[in-house]
Request: fold
Amino acid sequence: MSKQIKNRDQGCNLIGVGQYNERLVLQLIRRTGSLPKAEIARRTALSAQTVSVIIRRLMNEGLLSEQERQREKGKLGQPVIPITLNPEGAYSIGIKIGRRSLDTILIDFTGAILKRLSLPYLYPDPSVIFPQINQDIQALMRFLKPEQRTRLLGIGVAAPYNLGGWQSEAHIPPEITQQWHDIDIKERIQTKQTLPVWSVNDATAACITSLECRGGAPFNNYLYIFLGTFVGGGVVLNRSLFLGSHNNSGAIGSMPLPTGLFKTPSTAPAQLINCASLYLLDEALQAQGQNPENVFQQLAELPAAKIPPELYHIFQQWLDQAAMCLAYTIASAVSVIDFEGVVIDGLLPAPLIEQVKTKVEQALKQIDSEGLAQPHIIAGVIGAEARALGGALVPFYVNFAPDREVLLRTERETISLA
Reply:
């Protein structure tokens, strides 16, 4: 009888599942940074011999290396050599198509960004974006040496599923909106590329970054929230990405909210996207003739007394409204799935994300949550790079993660989203 695996962090020593065990070891090392063989065996429940064979094979393939500079002495006086990812083991290109900018990055196997190309714009015009993507990909490939190009695994694209949606909020011309309705982003890019292309939702990509990068979320089950031009999210269950039946789990921007939580000229219920997205803050600051990014840096670096009162007031108004609506969203989500934690990240500088986290914690205390266990809320540490980096991690996820079927499934299904 086959040995059953008790949880997804443990492998088995049966012949024929070596590929799964290799993926398990690679993912464990990616998420921890480096581990000695004995600790890898303990955490995966694989035998020491199996781990040694796997590591030797992966080192021969150039995916792993020994971290010589951290040699320690074990219990028997033998050197303990941490095993780590080999940065030159593989490379990947990540593309983030946003509502305000295009970012294209090249990363090594550890997830370090080697080169970044960016293009800001007022709205996403396909006639500009796709030629620029092809140009950026060629530039990044030229950046690599010929030997390195042979280890380039693919291209991961992070973009909203409905890039032409919420037209009035995003200020996208109607003709541009219609173009996006008729475009398959993955197919459009793939026609010009020989490398395989994968596409995921931009908030899902950011969630992948929080899951796979060292120093990411410390929870097994958590709700991920990304404060971008439009707020979005993702769901992680048992340390695995959960996409749901329509690959749309964590689409918190579409969550309807009751009136009374925020100021709106309409008495009809609105969505979270209408009260916790950064486009609202951007528009309020631009109405004052301000550059939002400059104001965000001031708010992050200066004491409140040194910030013009009208700008500080605009931010606080947005923060109060966003925090209460996010708290309501979190309470609603926790009533369905018993999340142990919530990660809040986004485009704002780290000190402002920390302020959002604190304000959300305070707002949660004002909500009747009897019968619910309150999740632990933390501020994310990745920031603005999360979506492009998540896109770049997708080829690694598909090729090396134990639960790669989660993303491969999206390649085989036709997604129909309203």
Confidence is low (pLDDT under 50) at residues 1-8, 12-17, 412-418. The CA atoms of residues 79 and 213 lie 27 Å apart. The two ends are 46 Å apart (CA to CA).
